[in-house]
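Hi R.,

Here's the chain you asked about this morning:
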Amino acid sequence: VFAFVAGNGNDVITAFGFDTLSVHGNDVLDLTGLGFASTQDVIDHMTDDGADTTLAIAPGQTIVIEGALVADFQAAVDDWVLV
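And the predicted structure, written out as tokens:
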């Protein structure tokens, strides 16, 4: 589980896995309390940056997920739980 809170600055995840078949397993991003209204809202804040995804949380706060693209998150949206 990768957990984030408001004001956490800029973070980088270097080994995120989408499913149990991946090398890194089934990882979880805990975005609770960051103000996202829906999974689409989260995706709308994501951009591809080369081979990585950047999630813009707030000015001065981002999460870079290395080796994953926005399309990877869109394909896995049915596995999302947004609280």
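DSSP finds two helices and six strands in the chain.

Let me know if you need anything else.
M.
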